[in-house]
Amino acid sequence: MSTAAAPGGPVLRMEAVRKSFGTSLVLRDVDLEVAPHTVTALIGASGSGKSTLLRCANLLEEVDDGAIWLDGEEITDPRADADAVRRRIGVVFQAYNLFPHLTVLQNITLAPQRVHGLSRADAEAQARELLDRLGLVAKADEYPDRLSGGQQQRTAIVRALAVRPRLLLLDEITAALDPELVGEVLNLVREVKDEGMTMVIATHEMAFAREVADQVCFLDAGVVLERGTPQEVFGAPREERTQKFLRRIVEAGRL
What is the annotated localization of this protein (predicted)? Predict the structure, then answer.
């Protein structure tokens, strides 16, 4: 099991990853590389495998075949410490998953203290700095049920950033939001990108993917059918199924 990343090598690499649930093959020999300080957008219809790919990357799902590397370390090796791997990866899902009995500040400082060993003072100072930079410092002492959906999702992103992850995985983070709240969450992701965070984003927000992504991967029935720059995938898709998918998006006014 290699533990050193090659200089300039990918932060995340997947090779021939397969995953089934019962008789349903959800990921079919997926290959993926994510370079440092880049954003990879996963697009495709619901059920195409985007969320499962992210869950495999964070070892929330065990792959059936293939291998995954994080900074050159094969994290699917049976000897890998899954908890140590997860400490290096931030994840934000559709559901905010904030602890309702904890304030915003307490939600954000929990993992830095319990998992990373920061003192309460250091964890709170770091959290307040993040909240201030991302426009949420006034909500530090509020409980989640006093926040809008957009504020809750932004808090969930700040919580993921508070552990200073090597990689940030975002899974349809605007899917549960009212349309008027989507913009504030996507603006936060833009700021995180500008700061150089390496991200993989599963999204139905095609215009956003076109704007922020360095690499776009179109998934269809568990296969990465097409990949390239946003200009290549959105502007001149090669595969017929990609073309059909994007035509539907355009007809729906989402691109």
Answer: Cell membrane
DSSP label at residue 99: -
Neighbours of 145 (CB within 10 A): 8
> Residues 38-92: pLDDT tens digits?
999 999 999 999 999 999 999 999 999 999 999 999 999 999 999 999 999 999 9
Q: In this structure, which amino acid lies at residue 150?
A: G
The answer to whether 154 and 185 have CB atoms below 8 angstroms apart is: yes
Nearest to 76 by CA among 8, 5, 12, 20: 12
**pTM, to two decimals:** 0.91
Structure tokens at 27: 């990921």
Query: Percent helix, strand, coil in the chain (nearest 5)?
Result: 40, 25, 40
221 Cβ partners below 8 Å, 6+ apart? 28, 48, 49
Domain ranges in the chain are: 12-251
Q: Are strands 167-171 and 199-202 parallel, antiparallel or unpaired?
A: parallel
